[in-house]
Structure formats: structure tokens, C-alpha cells
């Protein structure tokens, strides 16, 4: 009995699936002695139900779409169950229908927007149309074609909208990154540090604008080598340490050692190109004047410089995220779909549309190409680590079919093993019964042989006793006659009796030998027959021994019957020499070995 192969079924051998279902029906599993009374059609129904429910289970579909697909389960499962080619033919119409509908449906989630509602209405209408066609046993090609065309146009529109959004967002993210770098640079050195009030607006407007211009137009790798940027990286750390206010006091020695160096650095920065030369010149002049007033001890209105706000959606650069979490974001590629949990735990299905190594911003869009959210790498890494964001790993229909078939075929193969085990046990029982029967026959034949031998020995003893008695009587009679006549007569009588006794003993010995030979004959023995009813020197094989009637049947080399004798006839002809044993048949052990070898070949 062959086993079943899942891969063979997936490659198109649909007959194997039918055979496996038939094997499972009414066959107990190896671990369960109860019989499963389900029919193959009921098993098909159950298999189709399991495949469909796994196909639409979470996270395959949004919760609001599940009722639509659950409503058509009965009709769709019936369609799958009536055609095993659904599992083995990748071009099966119903299989292609599901593979065209479900991937698009898996990317939808409820959103307060017209495109979202439109998709919901379309998929609902299509499912209702398909169910009506299945119930009426008509082909739904027109409805599927119309939906496919609409879906293709929507995908094209979504791709165009996504492309435009990415272009716009790329510019916005680049600007946001430049603002963040500049604000972070200024806040790191000046936030909550005392500065003249006259410098607050100059730094907030002029300096920030100038540095943002260069951060926006210079690649991140080249920014650290830009001369103007390098100057301000040296100026800002010292600038926040030179003005006294409240509890923050600066000693004169620090002023005398650092202010001349800052003035020189400011003067050198004027030699480089700037975005607004006039505004930058005013910034340097104003800052130089404040530094001179500080070193000359002239009074200035000093206040703590407030931290500049970061752009919307940006977090402080001081937030630390483990490297392992940041590396987790590298596994998410452009085009990957993510399930993001909102504040109300509603699942948001979105696609990563923009991921630039030079920008710390990730852009996510929905299935229509519209923006859903933006996240920094740090924020997205934290979402992944806390489970608020999870990759949307959809299981393809083909993989679901393979998983379900694997479980079913594994169970079917177990049933095959159970059936083979039962057949083996039955064959072994037959062999044991045959061996017991042969052993009983052997014991009965041995008892019969011993009884026959005892009878013959008793007859021989009786004849010998009678002979001795006759001889004694003869001697008594001879004594009454004359001595010589008596002696001669007695001698003659003695010789006669001895000859007769010898002949009787010899006849008895031949009879005993013939009986022993008959007892030892086995089926397959060859004998030579020489009597009037057959041709002289005929060779025949003992074909059958009928124990109940004591019949021995002989056949020639081609299997034709040539003679039939009872046991007594057989013994008499062996005594007379009309039958001569040429070769005895196989003994019991050899016959038993042949029978066992035959049974093993049948089982295998």
C-alpha cells in the first residue's frame, strides 16, 4: 500500500488527494482506536473550511472586513470542496480569484476617507455577486474582470499619488533635518546659558537661518568639513561660557583668554561665502560688539537664552536608543507593509514609502498612496520593540494549502501504516495456525506409527510363542516312537518348523519395513510402479495423501493421475516389490519453510 506525497499533490497529482481522503474515512488513527465515520466528502468540506479560515484570519484582514468574507464562507467552501484541483492547480479559477482579491483586501483598514469607503463597498459588492453566481452555478468572469480593472486603475492612481507624495515629503524631510541639526547645535551650547538680550534675536534669526541654509544644501558627510560650519562649531561652545548672570559668574582670566580668540574666529568666518552677506555681517558685528563690552566690563542686559523648539515630529537628539533596536529598522524595506497600533489600539495598515539613509524620517502611506504618518528611525525602532508596530506578514494561499495538506497527508500516512500493521498481524496469525495444524498432524502420524509397530511386534511374539509350543508337542510325540525314528522325525520336524519360522519372521520383517516406508512417504516422493495395470517401470510422484480416507494418489511428470491406492494396497505392493521408492518427498520442516516463504512474498 503506497504512502502519499504532499509535493506530488501540489504538482498536479489530484488523484492522490482523493485516495488520501478515502484512506482517512472509516480508518482509526494509530493513537486512537475509535473509527472516524466521516465520509471523504465531509473531510473535503472540513479541509476547505480550514484553508479558507486560515486565509482570512488575523492578521490577514482588518476586523471590519472579516464579516464580509465570513458571510460567503459557506458558498465558497462548497466551491472548493467540489473540485480537488483547487489544491493542485495554481491556475484554478477560484484559486486565482482569491489570490487577486485577498492581497488587496489585506492592505485595507477603516479610515475616514472616501477611497477607503469606496474599496469597502466594492469588495462587499463583489463578494455578494460571487456568492450569487456560485449559488446559481454560473461563471462570475464579468464581475471579476470589472473588479480587476477597477483595482488596477486604483493601484495606478495610488502609485502616482505615492510618487508625488514622496517627492514632496523628501524636500520637507530634508528641510526638517537641516532645521533639527541647526537647532540641536545651538541648543547644545547656548540653551539656558546667559547671553546679551541683543544677541537673542540675532542668533534665533540670522545665525539659525544661515546655518540652516548650509545644512540644507550640503550633504551630511560634507557638512562637518564646511569651513563656515567648522567656525561656528568652535565659536558656540565658548560663546555660552563668557557672560555672567545671577549665579553664573565668569572670571576675568577666562574673558581675557577666550574673547580675543573668538573675535579672531568671527573675523575669519567673514572670508567665506554666505547666503546673506549683509545679514551675516551684521550678526558678526553685533556679536563682536557684545564680546568687546564684556571684556571692557561695560554693562549689558543679560538673560538666559531659551532653547529653540525642534520642528514638529522631531524628538530631542539626547534620546538614546540601543543600537540593536535601531538595527531592527534596517530589516524593514521600502514597500514593506506594517501594522501600526494607534492610541485606541486600532490597527493601521500602512506601507513604508520613503526611507532615505541621509534623512532621519520614515514615510508611511495607505493602500491609496495617501500619507498615514511619519516616524524618525528612533521612534519607529521604539514602536517595533514595544509591539506597537509589527511587519504585516501575510501567508500566501499556496503556503496555506501546503500547510493544511501536510497535516492531512501526515494523518493519512499514519492510517496507511495502521492498515499495513493489521495485514501483517493477520498474515502472522495465519502462519501460526498453519504451523499448529501441521504439528498436530505430525504428532498424530507418530502415534499411529508407534501403535502399528507395537501391533506387529505383538503378532511376531505370538507366532514365536506358538512355534515354540508346537515344537514342544512334537518332541513329546517323538519320544513315544522309537528312538531313531523319533529322532529322525523330530529332526525333520525341527528343520521344517525352523524354516517356516524363518520365513514367517522374514515376511513379518518385510511387512514391517513396508509399513514403515509407507509411513515415511511424503508428498512429492517418486516411486517406480511394476504391475499389470501400468506400463513396466512407470515412474510416478505421490501428489496427494488424504489422511481421512487413507488414500495415496500418484501422478506422472505432467501432473496426470496414474494410480490410486489405499494404505493397505500400498503396503502390500511395497512388500511384493510392485512398488519401489526412488526418492522420498520433502519432510515437514521443508514443506513448512516453503509455505512461510510463500506467505511472506504475498505480504510484501
Report on the structure:
Among the domains are: 6-162 and 399-413, no CATH class; 192-304; 523-585, Roll (SH3 type barrels). The chain is 63% helix and 10% strand. It is built from 20 helices and 12 strands. A 5-stranded antiparallel sheet has the order 6-5-4-3-7. It has a 5-stranded antiparallel sheet with strand order 11-10-9-8-12, with helices on one face. The longest helix is centred in the last third of the chain and has 84 residues, at 397-480. Residues 30-34 have low confidence and may be disordered.
Question: What attributes characterize this protein structure?
Answer:
single chain; 604 residues; alpha+beta; SH3 type barrels; five-stranded antiparallel β-sheet; 63% helix; elongated
Put the structure in a nutshell.
This protein has 604 residues and is of the alpha+beta class. It has helices spanning 6-10, 14-24, 40-56, 66-71, 73-81, 85-88, 93-106, 114-136, 141-190, 197-217, 220-223, 227-239, 252-269, 277-295, 323-328, 377-386, 397-480, 483-520, 567-576, 588-603, and strands spanning 194-196, 302-304, 337-341, 347-355, 362-365, 371-375, 389-391, 526-529, 538-546, 551-555, 561-566, 579-583.
Number of helices: 20
Largest sheet: 5 strands, antiparallel
Structural class: alpha+beta
Strand order of the largest sheet: 6-5-4-3-7
Contiguous low-pLDDT stretches (5 residues minimum) are 30-34
C-alpha termini separation = 10 Å
What number is the mean pLDDT? 83
Coarse shape: elongated
- According to DSSP, the number of beta strands is 12
Task: Assess the beta-strand content as a share of residues.
Answer: 5-15%
Percent helix: 55-70%
Amino acid at each position: 500500500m503506497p504512502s502519499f506525497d504532499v509535493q506530488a499533490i501540489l504538482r498536479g497529482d489530484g488523484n492522490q488527494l482523493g485516495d488520501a481522503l478515502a484512506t482517512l474515512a472509516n480508518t482509526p488513527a494509530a493513537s486512537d482506536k475509535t473509527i472516524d465515520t466521516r465520509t471523504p466528502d465531509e473531510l473535503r468540506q472540513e479541509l476547505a473550511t480550514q484553508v479558507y479560515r486560515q486565509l482570512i484570519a488575523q492578521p490577514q484582514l482588518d476586523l471590519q472586513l472579516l464579516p464580509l468574507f465570513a458571510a460567503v464562507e459557506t458558498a465558497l467552501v462548497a466551491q472548493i470542496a467540489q473540485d480537488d484541483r483547487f489544491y493542485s492547480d495554481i491556475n484554478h479559477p477560484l484559486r486565482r480569484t482569491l489570490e487577486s482579491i485577498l492581497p488587496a483586501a489585506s492592505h485595507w483598514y477603516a479610515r475616514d476617507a472616501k477611497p477607503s469607503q469606496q474599496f469597502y463597498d466594492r469588495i462587499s459588492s463583489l463578494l455578494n455577486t460571487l456568492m450569487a453566481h456560485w449559488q446559481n452555478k454560473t461563471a462570475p468572469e464579468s464581475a471579476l474582470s470589472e473588479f480587476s480593472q477597477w483595482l488596477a486603475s486604483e493601484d495606478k492612481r495610488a502609485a502616482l499619488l505615492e510618487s508625488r507624495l514622496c517627492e514632496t515629503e523628501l524636500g520637507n524631510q530634508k528641510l526638517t533635518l537641516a532645521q533639527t541639526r541647526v537647532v540641536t547645535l545651538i541648543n547644545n551650547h547656548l540653551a539656558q546659558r546667559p547671553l546679551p538680550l541683543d544677541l537673542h534675536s540675532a542668533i534665533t534669526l540670522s545665525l539659525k537661518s544661515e546655518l540652516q541654509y548650509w545644512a540644507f544644501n550640503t550633504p551630511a558627510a560634507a557638512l562637518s568639513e564646511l569651513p563656515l560650519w567648522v567656525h561656528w562649531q568652535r565659536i558656540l561652545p565658548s560663546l555660552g561660557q563668557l557672560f555672567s548672570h545671577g549665579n553664573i559668574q565668569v572670571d576675568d582670566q577666562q574673558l581675557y583668554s577666550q574673547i580675543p580668540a573668538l573675535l579672531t574666529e568671527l573675523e575669519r568666518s567673514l572670508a567665506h561665502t554666505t547666503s546673506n552677506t549683509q545679514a551675516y555681517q551684521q550678526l558678526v558685528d553685533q556679536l563682536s560688539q557684545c564680546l568687546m563690552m564684556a571684556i571692557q566690563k561695560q554693562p549689558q542686559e543679560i538673560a538666559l537664552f531659551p532653547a529653540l523648539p525642534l520642528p514638529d515630529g522631531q524628538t530631542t537628539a539626547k534620546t538614546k536608543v540601543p543600537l540593536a533596536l535601531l538595527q531592527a529598522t534596517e530589516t524593514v524595506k521600502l514597500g514593506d507593509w506594517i501594522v501600526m497600533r494607534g492610541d485606541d489600539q486600532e490597527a493601521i495598515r500602512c506601507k513604508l514609502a520613503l526611507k532615505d539613509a541621509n534623512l532621519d524620517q520614515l514615510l508611511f502611506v495607505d493602500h491609496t498612496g495617501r500619507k498615514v504618518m511619519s516616524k524618525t528611525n528612533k521612534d519607529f525602532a521604539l514602536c517595533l520593540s514595544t509591539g506597537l508596530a509589527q511587519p504585516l506578514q501575510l501567508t500566501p494561499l499556496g503556503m496555506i494549502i501546503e500547510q493544511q495538506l501536510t497535516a492531512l497527508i501526515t494523518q493519512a500516512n499514519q492510517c496507511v501504516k495502521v492498515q499495513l500493521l493489521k495485514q501483517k498481524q493477520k498474515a502472522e496469525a495465519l502462519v501460526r495456525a498453519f504451523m499448529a495444524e501441521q504439528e498436530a498432524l505430525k504428532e498424530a502420524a507418530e502415534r499411529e506409527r508407534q501403535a502399528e509397530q507395537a501391533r506387529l511386534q505383538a503378532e511376531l511374539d505370538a507366532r514365536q510363542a506358538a512355534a515354540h509350543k508346537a515344537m514342544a508337542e512334537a518332541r513329546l510325540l517323538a519320544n513315544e516312537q522309537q528312538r531313531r525314528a523319533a529322532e529322525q522325525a523330530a529332526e525333520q520336524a525341527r528343520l521344517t518348523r525352523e524354516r517356516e519360522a524363518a520365513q514367517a519372521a522374514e515376511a513379518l520383517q518385510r511387512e514391517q519395513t513396508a509399513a514403515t516406508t509407507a509411513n515415511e512417504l511424503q508428498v512429492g516422493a517418486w516411486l517406480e510402479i511394476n504391475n499389470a495395470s501400468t506400463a513396466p517401470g512407470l515412474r510416478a510422484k505421490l501428489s496427494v495423501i488424504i489422511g481421512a480416507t487413507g488414500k495415496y494418489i500418484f501422478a506422472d511428470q505432467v501432473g496426470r493421475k496414474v494410480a490410486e491406492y489405499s494404505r493397505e494396497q500400498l503396503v502390500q505392493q511395497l512388500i511384493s516389490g510392485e512398488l519401489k521408492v526412488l526418492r522420498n518427498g520433502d519432510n515437514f520442516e521443508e514443506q513448512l519453510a516453503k509455505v512461510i516463504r510463500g506467505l511472506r512474498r504475498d505480504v510484501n
